[in-house]
Amino acid sequence: MKYILLSNLPRLLAGYGRSWQGYPAVVIVVCDLDDKCLKSFRDELIGLLNSCNPRPETRFCIAIEEGEAWFLGDISAIKQAYPKAKDAVLNTYVSDSICGTWERLADAVYKGGSQGLSRLGWQTVGAEKSEWAGKITPHMDLDNNTSPSFNYFIGKLRELAEPT
């Protein structure tokens, strides 16, 4: 699914540029870095944006390595959502490291860990990731997250929310 969205991004951005011309609108693109080079990926996204005429006002916010990094940046939120989460796994995570982030979270909160979850297939993995998002995000402290990529995202939202 994410590859479909990224491959459609040039068309979508161009459409937003035409549709929103003259309106105070901003496109916020949030995506995972996975194992790509951050600079190259950001340059690729900016190149796509620059090819749009008119170009919509856009912010790119990239989760390093995956969106689960933003959850792992707030161990307290994970512990509130999953009181039995394994401290030994959570405490070894280095914020925004390329280390198999969703697998690390699964090893901490999912019975059977990432290996057990992976055996159930990608659809089950996706459903579990959605469940994590629903359970963890209500407990997240936006001002005390150790993920630099999450803090960048929150900073962009705050910039946009400031009165002009």
Structure overview:
This protein is about 55% helix and about 5% strand. It has a two-stranded parallel sheet with strand order 1-2. The chain contains 9 helices and 2 strands, in the order αβαβααααααα. It is mainly α. The mean pLDDT is about 95. The longest helix is centred in the first third of the chain and has 18 residues, at about 1-20. The protein folds into 2 domains: about 1-65, no CATH class; about 75-140, no CATH class. About 25% of the residues are buried. The N and C termini lie far apart (about 35 Å).
Chain-averaged pLDDT: 94
- Broad shape: globular
How much β-strand is present in the residues? Answer: 5-15%
Terminal CA distance reads 36 Å
Number of strands: 2
- The H-and-E topology, N to C, reads as HEHEHHHHHHH
Count of discrete domains = 2
Keywords:
164 residues, mainly alpha, two-stranded parallel ribbon, 2 strands
Question: Helices and strands in order, then pairings?
Answer:
Blueprint: H1 2-19, E1 27-32, H2 38-50, E2 58-63, H3 68-72, H4 75-81, H5 87-90, H6 101-109, H7 113-118, H8 122-136, H9 148-161
Parallel strand pairs: 1-2
Give a short synopsis of this structure.
The chain is mostly helical and 164 residues long.
